[in-house]
Write a structure and sequence with these properties.
With 412 residues, this protein is α+β, with helices and mostly antiparallel strands. It has ten helices and 20 strands.
Length: 412
């Protein structure tokens, strides 16, 4: 069996599902001419009883992109939580005091600084939106890619063959598509694991995202409904192993101490989930008739929660570039795809380098550097203009943002 498409998206995560939906919502492709191929589909899954262990902090720009793709408006209201403030402080400082930096949505005239969103609910709704828009969902593994002058051919594990003008690889950090194409990556391991769980705290989180930089890595508390918080504790692998081996009361005590008691006593509510941390970026974002986006193209440290935000900006930028191509027959044109590569590769490398530099700076235990860090955070906290501009950029309200609120950006 063989079937022709304008675009085949490989990968059923949020980024892959969103770019597939955008192609139809912006009428760049007709219903039935975009396929989403994933080894496992979740579009028919029911919502879980509670929040998923993994959550995402999404910017206003990401909210707009998800709304444009028909995802945001269908997310369950109890799986989204807007946070209004952020407090970041160094291990040598104090929360909301010396060596800290705070942001408040009121200072920039916004209702919040972004939203914390349930990871599973987001993925389920992203796939449902793609299906409802007219994307053909195919549950299968990709076994072979053959790139020809006229089209790309994809052989699936069940023997089917798909032909497409363009392939979008959005199949994650380990991207089988990237490996099949021989695209190399660079980067390094942080020799850290991120421990993720939900906790209850004695003090209210006050709709605030809290993050303390420790010598072994940052500890973040992301506010959830009902007063809970989702923690992302990035620490050395040796320390992560030690923490995982603790019983609940001992872990609670360690967590309370690591957060300097900013939220009072902490109580673990869910099992710990862990994932290794690394910096990784593809050396090429495009080869003939293929583009990479999302984690297939770049993986960054989670300290600022920018991973999925960068991936969604990839989706919007690709849509804008393809929209300028004129018609689906030109989607695989090398000049069109190189424009996307130049745009997103530079933006993503800049973000990855900045996050890597912050991680190195704050994970340094040198007393002299620690003192400068604390002093620097405190100084920036007193510069209202700088603080407001930083908050606006983090929200995606300034900078080179594609598809501003559904409209093309001035980037060319």
């Amino acid at each position: 069996m063989s079937r022709d498409f304008d675009v085949v998206v490989i990968g059923g995560g949020v980024a892959g599902s969103v770019v597939a939906s955008l192609l139809l919502s912006h009428k760049l492709c007709a219903p039935g001419k975009v396929a989403l191929v994933a080894e496992r589909l979740t579009a028919g899954a029911e919502a879980t009883a509670d929040w998923d262990p993994r959550v995402f902090a999404l910017s206003r720009a990401s909210e707009r992109i998800l709304r444009d793709a028909g995802v945001w408006q269908n997310l369950p209201s109890n799986r989204i939580f807007g946070y209004e403030r952020m407090c970041v402080w160094d291990a040598e400082g104090t929360p909301e005091g010396r060596g800290s930096l705070s942001f408040d949505c009121a200072e920039i005239g916004e209702p919040n600084l972004g939203h914390i969103v349930d990871g599973r609910a987001l993925q389920v709704q992203a796939q449902r939106a793609a299906r409802d828009a007219g994307v053909v969902l195919i549950e299968a593994a990709v076994r072979e890619l053959v790139i020809a002058d006229d089209a790309a051919r994809i052989r699936l594990g069940d023997g089917r063959e798909l032909r497409s003008t363009l392939i979008v690889a959005a199949d994650g950090a380990e991207s089988p598509t990237r490996r099949l194409l021989g695209i190399a990556t660079a980067g390094h391991s942080y020799a850290q694991d991120a421990l993720v769980a939900q906790v209850r705290t004695a003090k209210p989180h006050r709709e605030t995202a809290w993050q303390r930089f420790l010598p072994t890595g940052p500890l973040a508390f992301l506010p959830l409904p009902d007063g809970r918080a989702s923690i992302v504790w990035s620490t050395s692998r040796k320390e992560a192993a030690r923490l995982r081996a603790l019983d609940a009361p001992a872990f609670n005590e360690e967590l309370t101490q690591a957060s300097a008691g900013a939220l009072g006593d902490c109580e673990l509510l869910t099992p710990l989930t862990e994932f290794p941390l690394r910096l990784q970026y593809a050396l090429d974002y495009t080869v003939a008739r293929v583009v990479l986006l999302g984690d297939a193209a770049h993986v960054v440290h989670p300290l600022a929660g920018q991973g999925l935000n960068l991936g969604l900006n990839d989706c919007a930028a690709l849509l804008e570039v393809l929209g300028d191509a004129g018609n689906a027959a030109a989607f695989g044109d090398a000049r069109v795809l190189r424009r996307y590569e130049r745009w997103r590769k530079s933006e993503n490398l800049l973000a990855a380098t900045a996050l890597d530099g912050i991680e190195r700076l704050f994970s340094n235990s040198n007393p002299a550097i620690a003192g400068l860090r604390s002093l620097g955070l405190g100084a920036v906290g007193k510069l209202d203009f700088v603080r407001r501009q930083a908050a606006r950029r983090a929200l995606g309200l300034s900078g080179d943002v594609p598809l501003r609120g559904g409209r093309p950006s001035p980037h060319k």
